[in-house]
Amino acid sequence: MSNISNPESYSGTLFFDVNETLLDTKELNRVVAQRLGDRPERAEAWFTSLLHHSLVESVTGSWHSFGDIAEAVLEMTGSRYGVTLPKNATPLAQIIAAMPAHPDVLTGLTALQQQGFTLVALTNSSSALAEKQLGSAGLSSLFTRILSVEQVQVYKPDLRVYQWAMKEMGKPVAECMMIAAHGWDVGGAKRAGMKTAFVSRQGQALYPLAPVPDLTASDIGELAAKIKPLC
Fold it and tell me: What values do phi and psi take at 198, rounded to 5?
């Protein structure tokens, strides 16, 4: 249910997280689990650790690409569980680049674009990787801009990312909404002053101590049905 007082009057720029929100990570999770001894729970541990160490990079003033951190954390996770990783394996970035869109995404984004919203991708992936991802998924033409944290060298949910993204688009905070399937992402955006929408993908949940999002939707199609541009 929408928490926006009048959702039909909202208009502006919609910033979308990419990984999991728009693109299905199922194949990536399968590959990681396979490399870690065919244990799906280890793939979950890997992803949690990936997010953790991307934030460690931000707070310590270091910078490596999300793909490089993913590989380093995979190596670390393998060591943690006593697993020898396969040699000459397909780089994770190559698998990430080929992830398909969730079934609801193309029609949902198209509906939002037709309603007059400006669509912007805001991702922790590198610029080059994000371009490949959205191109491979057939979504590139729907986005006005693809913004990567690589340009500011700090990772979401650092508030500086959202503040930079709004400035980059030349939009006031009142006209900006962040849409993500991660509680930490919408929580960060909300604290930066943006409106937020949580996409409740399977296995995702909101963080109880974060600000409540303005809108919750099961997928992008439902999101498009709940918000409309200012007439």
Answer: -100, 125
Non-local CB neighbours of 28 within 8 Å, separated by 6+ positions = 92, 95, 96, 99
DSSP 114-136: HTTPEEEEEESS-HHHHHHHHHH
Residue 147: count of CB within 10 angstroms of its CB = 20
Q: Residue for token digits 């994770």?
A: 92
Write the pLDDT tens digit of every residue in 163-193.
999 999 999 999 999 999 999 999 999 999 9
3-class DSSP state of 198 = strand
pLDDT of amino acid 227: 87
Strands (E), 100-188: 118-123, 145-148, 176-180
Of the chain, the percentage scoring pLDDT greater than 70 comes to 94
